[in-house]
């Protein structure tokens, strides 16, 4: 119905043009009937391929990378729709965002990338420290590992050579090249999409088993995950170890970090006093070939 | 068909009602195209399928030109100084990450410490009357006695992090530095009774402009910027290093900063000019750069400050060498020498540069020379710390040391004929 209406409008004026109108109908239907189901955090999130008209000034380079920190606005825990998404956020000291590169890949021709660590710095937006590394005429921020310091040379590759390498702290390799039992951080779920797992201060995962095309890794939560052999991970623990055990000092200092007061003392369910202990969960398997989620389509309205 | 309250009334329950209703209302007619008012007078209006063709639209020009605030910014190719090949441009705010080492690679020069030999001999031999008193007055004039009263930036102290300072009013940092350097230059010019060529043979330019360029390993590097004061003289500077010393530099090996390129901290741009200007654009009797005065309002390390001073001295030397010996000169027949005074609030740093070659494509052959003399504290100060007691309620100035001023006198009076004549006479008298 809606599609025919739009097509009629389009025919009548001869001015408005929408590419791929079949997607438009999906979107109308979705938001018309099932709007209440699309809650935040639930699985029934709205489809990613909706209309999104972007008014882009060609003068401004959006993708330009720089070491200069970017201005960051406080959300107060609210999402883009204005509703509370995360509880307990609000206030705090002003922060600026450092654009951190989680992709520790090699060069385009497949050779290893050697970089020099210029400095290890504090970052207000995360618990871990960050490192400024440079190679050639390019410099970038990465996550600092535990023993990283200024003046070190670090390597990163994303190509399997078929030989098990000797892991060095701070270097990045594909998971299939590492021996069993090595401690890793900044682990990719899908090959080529950047590290996602274990990026908090002091956290680490461990390689448990190697299969011919997959490798099994224990996440910081002790749950296992199955990923492709080509996924890149950095050797060692994340920097700023023992950050969680440092006393904050006062309730006021906690507010400086943008955390609001919460009630109660969190206690883990340990099976004492007849509490139920659930059996360990199955390992999460991430598909090798097709990563979850589609790239969002862009439709242009022209007059 | 719309479902309304009528459908749920009593007659709606009969089958005939639904039959008649569906016959009457169950038709959807496509609405006719709505023609805008201004197009109604036209007889034939072409209707286009937008999925297959594109509508032809006439360009509309506004009768009155648009306001400037809505004007689109020009693209890079529309800039007046656009070039196809990009160049690496050094400006004053470029911070060299590796400091003096990186600057030595960029300029192909040998690093030495201290003063060069001809200027070292002048230190401590030139004096002015009431030297300490005048110097202390100069410091007090810049720090305390100046009449500017401006809101100063917020202050914090690492010794007491949570302390809340009351907002302060006074002399801003840049102003303090400017007054201090002007006073020092005036004190240096007081020697004109003994050495009159300080006034006759010199010409001081403030906020002088610099552009010059050279090829570093087949890549164009250009300088753009201003220095606070530039002292020009009517004759070129005498060479700092001997001919033998220059020939020995063939065996010197330049430092390496693998895997980083030394061009990392420079800007890569398409808009630049290929002029050579060091202070003055036209020909002038006093056109040889003598000393450059730079000021630092930043919080860089001493090595990075010295590197910026060295790059500016190199830029001035390149511009004057190209004006003297032509654009395509490689090995200079006579070296070009430039001095630089890099001043901060309390300290003076000196750099001396001697340009021997402009052949920077390789790291072989003759090299240039640079001398660094860092951290000559004339005085030091401690800002107020009220939590310590009544003695710390105002800023404290301490550890006065006039040694750096003696060095500045030697730098300022370098290349004056009277100073060297007097020096030689003294040496001869001692030898006899």
UniProtKB/TrEMBL annotation, chain A:
Iron listed as a keyword: no
Domain of life per record: Eukaryota
Keyword Cytoplasm assigned: no
Domain Large ribosomal subunit protein uL2 C-terminal: residue ranges: 167-295
Annotated keywords: Ribonucleoprotein, Ribosomal protein
GO biological process: mitochondrial translation
One Gene Ontology term of the molecular function aspect: RNA binding
Boundaries of every Large ribosomal subunit protein uL2 RNA-binding domain copy: 77-156
GO cellular component: mitochondrial large ribosomal subunit
Similarity section: Belongs to the universal ribosomal protein uL2 family.
Name of the protein in its database record: Uncharacterized protein
From TrEMBL, chain B:
One cellular component (GO) term of this entry: mitochondrion
Protein name as annotated: 39S ribosomal protein L37, mitochondrial
Species this protein is from: Lottia gigantea
Top-level taxon in the UniProt lineage: Eukaryota
């Amino acid at each position: 119905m809606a599609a025919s209406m739009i097509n009629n409008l389009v025919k009548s004026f001869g001015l408005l043009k929408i590419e791929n109108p079949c997607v438009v109908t999906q979107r109308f239907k979705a938001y018309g009937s099932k709007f209440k189901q699309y809650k935040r955090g639930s699985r029934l999130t709205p489809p990613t391929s909706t209309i999104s008209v972007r008014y882009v000034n060609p003068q401004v380079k959006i993708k330009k990378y720089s070491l200069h920190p970017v201005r960051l606005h406080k959300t107060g825990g609210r999402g883009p729709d204005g509703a509370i998404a995360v509880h307990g956020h609000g206030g705090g000291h002003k922060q600026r965002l450092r654009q951190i590169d989680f992709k520790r890949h090699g060069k385009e021709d497949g050779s290893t990338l050697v970089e020099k660590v210029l400095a290890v710095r504090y970052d207000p937006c995360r618990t871990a420290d960050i490192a400024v590394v440079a190679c050639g005429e390019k410099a970038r921020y990465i996550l600092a590992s535990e023993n990283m310091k200024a003046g070190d040379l670090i390597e990163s590759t994303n190509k399997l050579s078929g030989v098990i390498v000797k892991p060095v702290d701070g270097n990045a390799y594909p998971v299939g090249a590492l021996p069993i039992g090595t401690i890793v951080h900044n682990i990719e779920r899908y090959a080529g999409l950047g590290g996602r797992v274990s990026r908090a201060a002091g956290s680490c995962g461990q390689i448990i088993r190697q299969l011919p095309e997959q490798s099994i890794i224990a996440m910081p939560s002790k749950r296992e995950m199955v990923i492709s052999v080509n996924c890149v991970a950095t050797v060692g623990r994340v920097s700023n170890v023992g950050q969680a055990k440092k006393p904050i000092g006062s309730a006021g200092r906690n507010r400086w970090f943008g955390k609001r007061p919460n009630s109660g003392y969190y206690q883990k369910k340990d099976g004492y006093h007849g509490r139920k202990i659930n059996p360990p969960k199955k390992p999460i398997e991430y598909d090798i070939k097709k990563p979850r989620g589609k790239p969002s389509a862009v439709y242009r309205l022209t007059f | 068909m719309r479902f309304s309250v009528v459908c749920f009334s009593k007659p709606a329950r009969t089958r005939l009602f639904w039959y008649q209703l569906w016959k009457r209302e169950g038709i959807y007619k496509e609405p006719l195209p709505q023609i805008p008012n201004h197009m109604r007078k036209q007889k034939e209006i072409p209707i286009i399928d937008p999925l297959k063709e594109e509508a032809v639209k006439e360009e509309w020009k506004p009768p009155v030109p648009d306001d400037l605030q809505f004007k689109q910014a020009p693209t890079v190719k529309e800039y007046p100084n656009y070039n196809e090949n990009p160049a690496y441009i050094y400006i004053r705010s470029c911070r060299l990450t590796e400091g003096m080492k990186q600057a030595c690679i960029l300029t192909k020069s040998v690093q030495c410490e201290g003063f060069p030999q001809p200027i070292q001999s002048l230190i401590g031999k030139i004096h002015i009357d009431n030297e300490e008193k005048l110097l202390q007055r100069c410091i007090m004039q810049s720090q305390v006695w100046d009449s500017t009263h401006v809101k100063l930036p917020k202050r914090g102290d690492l010794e007491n992090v949570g302390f809340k300072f009351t907002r302060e009013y006074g002399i801003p940092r840049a102003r303090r530095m400017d007054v201090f350097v002007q006073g020092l230059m005036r004190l240096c010019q007081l020697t004109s009774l003994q050495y009159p060529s300080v006034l006759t043979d010199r010409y001081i330019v403030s906020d002088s402009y610099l552009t010059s360029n050279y090829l570093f390993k087949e890549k164009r590097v250009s300088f753009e910027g201003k220095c606070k004061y530039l002292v020009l003289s009517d004759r070129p500077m005498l060479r700092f290093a001997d001919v033998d010393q220059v020939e020995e530099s063939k065996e010197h090996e330049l430092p390496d900063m693998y895997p980083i390129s030394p061009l990392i901290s420079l800007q890569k741009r398409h808009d630049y000019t290929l002029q050579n200007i060091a202070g003055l654009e036209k020909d002038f009797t006093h056109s040889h750069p003598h000393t450059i005065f730079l000021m630092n309002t930043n919080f860089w390390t001493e090595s990075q400050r010295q590197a910026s001073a060295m790059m500016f001295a190199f830029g001035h030397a390149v511009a004057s060498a190209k004006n003297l010996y032509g654009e395509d000169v490689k090995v200079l027949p006579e070296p070009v020498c430039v001095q630089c005074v890099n001043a901060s609030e309390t300290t003076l740093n000196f750099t001396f540069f001697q340009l021997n070659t402009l052949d920077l494509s390789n790291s072989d052959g003759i090299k240039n020379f640079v001398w660094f003399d860092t951290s000559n504290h004339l005085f030091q100060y401690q800002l107020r710390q009220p939590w310590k007691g009544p003695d710390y309620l105002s800023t404290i100035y301490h550890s006065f040391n006039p040694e750096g001023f003696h060095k500045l006198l030697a730098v300022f009076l370098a290349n004056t004929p009277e100073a060297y004549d007097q020096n030689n006479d003294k040496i001869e008298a001692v030898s006899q």
